[in-house]
Amino acid sequence: MAFDIDMIKGVYANMAERVDQAREIVGKPLTLSEKILYSHLWDGNPTKAFSRGKDYVDFAPDRIACQDATAQMALLQFMQAGKKKVAVPTTVHCDHLIQAKTGAAADLKMANSASAEVFDFLESVSNKYGIGFWKPGAGIIHQVVLENYAFPGGMMIGTDSHTVNAGGLGMVAIGVGGADAVDVMAGMAWELKFPKLIGVRLTGTISGWTAPKDVILKVAEILTAKGGTDAIVEYFGPGARSLSCTGKGTICNMGAEIGATTSTFGYDESMERYLRATERADVADAANQIKEYLTADDEVYANPENYFDQVIDIDLTALTPLLNGPFTPDLSTTVGSDMTEKATKNDWPIQVEWGLIGSCTNSSYEDLSRASSIAQQALDKGLKMKAELGINPGSEQVRFTAERDGILNVFEKLDAKIFTNACGPCIGQWARYSDPKNAPKNSIVHSFNRNFAKRADGNPNTHAFVASPEITAAIAIAGRLDFNPMKDTLINENGEEIKFDEPTGWELPPKGFEVEDAGFLAPDEDGSGVEVKVASDSERLQLLEPFVPITNEQMQGMKLLIKAFGKCTTDHISMAGPWLRFRGHLDNISNNCLIGAVNAYNKKTNFVKNQLTGEYGGVPDTQREYKAAGIKTIVVGDHNYGEGSSREHAAMEPRHLGVAAVLVKSFARIHETNLKKQGMLGLTFATESDYDLIQEDDTFNFIDIADFAPGKPLTIEVVHADGSKDTVMANHTYNEAQIGWFNEGSALNVIKRENAA
Fold first, then answer.
1. For this structure, is 540 an active site residue?
2. Which of 120, 252, 352, 529 is the most exposed place for a label (fewest CB within 10 A)?
3. At which of 453, 475, 498 does a domain end?
4. Long-range Cβ pairs for the range 104-107 (8 Å, 24+)
5. Of the residues 40, 52, 96, 455, which is catalytic?
6. Residues ≥6 apart with Cβ < 8 Å to 299
7. What's the domain range around 591?
8. Can 647 be counted among the known catalytic residues?
9. Same domain, 337 and 404
10. Confidence label for 1 from pLDDT (cuts 50, 70 and 90)
11. Tens of pLDDT along 523-557?
12. DSSP state at residue 447
């Protein structure tokens, strides 16, 4: 039986009435995305039509999921909210704080020792506040959610950008910052700008070497890393129905890399099969009762151009395997000779040193079985591995079943490392080098979702390329980036020319899923007696103090901390890797604040001018000197600032250190919201070229901050070192409530005040 089945049945009981009412109000047939959004309004039944990309709307999500790195800060904030129990079903998943090094058994043992303090904290807080807890080793949050919690037509939020994985089961699942999660945990509405809608029509069928991964790699090529911003991507058509449920999840998962709010598919037979295979027949039965409400109206898919803001067509029959990268997930190359040409031109290492299969996007039983069919061919045909191979199963259920069925043994015969059911190599928690900063230039291929510089192993010279598990396995065996398994041959140990057969596998395990200990701990019914302890001298956990509101006076005479040049993701603003251990200690982790951002004036990282001394130093050190002097600062950035993970710390660290405003050409959605939640100003240049006006020694005066109001740009006087001035207009998207967050110091301050009333 499913978790929270009564909640799911409650959602379905209301859905028909709410969707029918929404259809009448909107005055036209509805997409699936609209059906889910309008059936989850905070006020219940819809009463008005919302404008896409403009209206801010209050929603009531059905559930929340938090991974261990972000859960620390989210729960530290929730502890200050004045509530005895979470208001909606919530889970915590321990998957990020497990370093990949030697293999699952040793790595998990080391994590349980090194991060015991954090895991114990998360378990005790979960137990106290009615939160389900998934132990280290239980699996990667998004795979566990897909297997246990996701349901068609539901809405969930999660403190990780890849929460969108649940779209594979027909949800609207959205990555948010911890402060957003706290709102919902505390029983308050969750606010979102009503998304635009991008429809992707899939025709034909996938076959041969092409995989669901190639669909999202193609979409990323078309839309680029920011093309999905503020939009839900909805997949439909006969090609969509031909995909497996976990294949749909793979596509939705990496939709985070195009900036999309989320992605989703309509309910179909593959979802029903997956629900029943994962012992959720009760959910499937309930969904079947209202299945016409769990997909778009027929007219929408018949004439999508009339209902979506943008429509993309992809013929799955014509789609070929792709490799995306390096250093950005949207740079797409067809496998084979196209890669030979591009790699040679750009000096990308042709030799591949590692292939990595798994992560939250390609760690299902189906993924592992298809990749193992290629590995088995290497064994059968006498091929030796030219690169090393690593496997990250998605969950203990997947791992146990794959081991039972001999799939993992196939990889082990090729000396593959079977890592913990966790995120490790995908998030910078891969101990590949003793000195990553000075590690050699190399290429790797993986089935993960992100490939920013320094992400996997901390080495800025690692060129990471994203591919399907099948292609990853083949390229790892061949050891060449430009290997095309559809055409090219390899020489085996007997000197024979060998060509791979097409991959095969199972959508679902033929003998069903099996697991001895899934790793779940249910909370006490009454957690009031549970004591949460945080040592005062802890290096990893620190109880929070409320942020003090930034005054209008402090918005005068502000200094420039850094003008970031080019791509500045949340990895650049708040690095992961070794810094993950400080995710529960705001002051300690603030020592990584913006250390990866490139200074526009010298093209160096972590090297900015201190206007108080005239000397150059690290960003956090410089900012702490400004803070000690009582001077607020501003950060200036480029396009899509804050792209990437939904990490809370990328907003909290600058706020803690004394940054009052972030002024950029454009924001990634989650980061902009996070800045608002922490009581800061997140602003965009009204004229993008004004970015070029900002000089290294500038002082900033927000001359009309006293008149801060919705829809009214702010005027910034920029005073240069020679006494000359420029006036820069800054746009914002703050509404009255969000301006209230700024005025009171943070959204959490508002929640605490309201709960105390």
1. no
2. 529
3. 498
4. 104/137, 104/418, 104/419, 104/420, 104/421, 107/419, 107/420, 107/424
5. 96
6. 29, 307
7. 553-756
8. yes
9. yes
10. low
11. 999 999 999 989 989 999 999 999 999 999 999 99
12. S
Least confident among 224-228, 352-356, 634-638: 224-228
What's phi and psi for 35, nearest 5 deg? -60, -45
Is residue 96 part of the annotated active site? The answer reads yes
Tell me how far apart the alpha carbons of residues 688 and 667 are, in angstroms, rounded to a whole number. 13
**95 counts as catalytic:** yes
Q: In what order do the strands lie in the sheet with 310-315?
A: 262-265, 231-236, 196-203, 310-315
d(C-alpha 127, C-alpha 86), whole Å = 11
Tell me which of 40, 280, 432, 450 is the catalytic residue.
450
Q: Which amino acid is at 199?
A: G
Rounded Cα–Cα distance for residues 710 and 676 (Å): 13
Angle at 337 between CA 474 and CA 372, to 5 degrees: 10
Average pLDDT taken over every residue of the chain: 96
- Give the CATH number, domain containing residue 750: 3.20.19.10
117: helix, coil or strand? Answer: helix
User: How does pLDDT run across 45-97, given as a tens digit for each residue?
Assistant: 999 999 999 999 999 999 999 999 999 999 999 998 989 999 999 999 999 99
180 in active site: no
Model confidence band, residue 437 (pLDDT cutoffs 50, 70, 90): confident
Cα–Cα distance measured from residue 260 to residue 195, given in angstroms and rounded to the nearest whole number:
9
Which is catalytic among the residues 270, 369, 395, 645?
A: 645
Please compute the mean of the pLDDT values over residues 240-255 and round it to a whole number. Answer: 98
Query: What are the start-end ranges of the E strands in 168-226?
Result: 172-175, 190-193, 196-203
Domain count, the chain: 2
Give the predicted TM-score (pTM) of the model: 0.91
Residue 645 is among the residues annotated as catalytic for this protein = yes
